[in-house]
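Design review, sub-item: ligand-bound model
Attendees: FS, YL, KQ
YL presented the inputs for the calcium ion complex:
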Amino acid sequence: LRIWGNYFKMKRLSIKQFSITLLIIFILYQMISFGYFYKRVLYSINSILFENLKTDSVILKENIEKNIRFADISNIAAFLGTYSATHPLIDKIYLLNESKKPIFSTDRDISNFSLNKRCLNLRKLSADKVLDIDCFYMKVKVYKKLTPYFYYAYIIIDKKYQNSLFKTHLLNYIVIFIISNIFFGIFLIFVINKFIITPLEQLRQYAYYSNKPLQSFLINEFESIRYSLKNTFHRLKSEQYKLYELSTKDPLTKLLNRNSLIKEVDRIILESNRLKQNFTFLFMDIDDFKLINDTYGHDFGDKVLISISKKLKNSVRKSDIVARFGGDEFVIILLGASKPFQIKKIIEKIQKNMKIPIKKDEASLTPTFSIGIAFYPKDGKDFHELLKNADIAMYKAKNSGKNIYHFFSLKDENKLLEKIKIEQLIKKALKENNFKLYYQPQVDIKTNKIVGCEALIRLIDPIEGLIPPDKFIPVAEETNQIIQIGRWVFQESIRQIKEWEKSRLRGIKVSVNISALELNDEILFQYIKNSMKVIDAKNLCIELTESVFIDYTENNIEKINLGISLALDDFGTGYSSLSYVKNLPFNYLKIDKSFIDDILKDPQDKIFIKVIIDMAKTMKLKTIAEGVETKEQRDILKEFGCDIYQGYLSSKPLPAKDFENFFLEWNKES
Ligand code: C2E
Ligand code: CA
Ligand code: CA
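KQ shared the predicted structure:
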């Protein structure tokens, strides 16, 4: 059994092979049972023959006994003749005398009688022996004058008849058996094929290709397999679809997501190359989206994004691509449109659609976009280049205000690269301590003594050399690095003041510049406040520009009132309103270099300076003139009553040590 089991395991049968094997086993079984059945039939035929022979022989015996006369057998000759003739199984009958010599034969020929045939006494005859014998005999008793004589009747069986009898029986059975089995086999194969093999093959194909739907099956098990396959495929399809949606679409806005945008653009680039067509890449960022989120909550923020997505889709052609690139960033690919005036029109349509307000309770919002535009292939040969340059352009748009679009230009890119480089240098400088403070003397015009100095930061990179503050301060303000820088500047200048307070420079006032962003740095102001315990507050002056007051109405400056001086820097360049000055306790007003530059050439500027100095005087402010380069400039300022001057006339900003020497030398001389 195990061998067979292994055989099947190894071989692995098809259902066809399996059912043929089964059929062969069935036919073998049929044959065996047929053999058995045939034997049974044979036996019953024999029994009938035997019974017939037996009863007939009794009649025969009686007849012979009654009619035979001694030495005269003619009486029964006729009888025996008809008897043998009517019995198909009896070939002939011999009558033998007591000494077993034949005296009569039904065919009147006694010469061919012999006793060596298989002959059996009737009394010993039984059904199972009927087939094995050639003849049987019986002893017949005849009385002659009371003396009994014995005759023998030998009855020869007609073997030919007997055999043919069985042969036809056998033939009939075999024919019926074979034909019925053939029919049955064909029927079975047909049924198995139709109801098992074909459905199985169909199910196999269905499981593999799953495309064409299957008709229902007759057989329950197959039907349930088909049904569950169908359900599985259905579920698979919908899951597949969901997965596809999930992987290509942004779940919130249902726009293409970043990944599928990249794929789409790659595809469009190939197509554009083939058709020699251009397209336009718009990178869009919602203005102040963070503010919307913070004031109205994220749920409303989501609602805004959905509404905006719909408006964007409605503003462009169906064939154009709208994708959500990130939080509040969108990308639109305009196919076929590649002329600035066409783009302008489309953007105007977008802006018009955006004007339809999104309502939240009482408030109604009309979000705007900053848009950067890059053209394929002019501004980028692949997705990343297009994105980068459109982003640069968007950045530029953002810096120019809100609701503005900007076409990419190489100049923007260079500026951005420069910015990135400076950002890295600042980062490095903060880590490696590449910043230094230089000090520029401030000279009292009347006494010609140095009374103070302005601390001016320098970035001295070991590789790039000196980077002027005009270059890196605006970058630091954008990147928020100004906070770290400001803390360093104050730490360093306070340390310097402390040092000078103990030296021959004692009493010198150090002015430190502060940017608008630094005003909100609590840590910085806490530090300044604490430092007033270590240095004399009157030796520190903080310089602020007017722009500070435009953006911030309330700030830390108002909170610290510890005797630190305040100077209003770059006066005259901004909005120049003295009303700002009234609100803060300024001590100094610094006249911007641009007015000093033209003081000799431009009478207008000359008047302006005179007016400023006079007004400052009435407000009890001291004036400091910046960028004084010539004696002539200084003399006019002296004439106007300006208090202090600062500029190359006395000195450029100097490193601390040089400044100390310069100071001692200068004040000794004058
Ligand atoms: P600012 O506050 O107006 O500084 C005066 C600028 O004029 C300095 O430029 C100084 O070197 C320059 N200057 C002075 N006298 C003359 C002159 O006679 N002729 C010419 N041509 N220039 C003169 P600097 O040092 O390059 O600083 C530029 C700006 O960077 C400063 O303008 C200030 O706004 C900012 N800054 C400098 N240091 C710091 C700092 O530590 N913190 C902050 N927040 N800003 C700083
Ligand atoms: Ca200044
Ligand atoms: Ca200034």
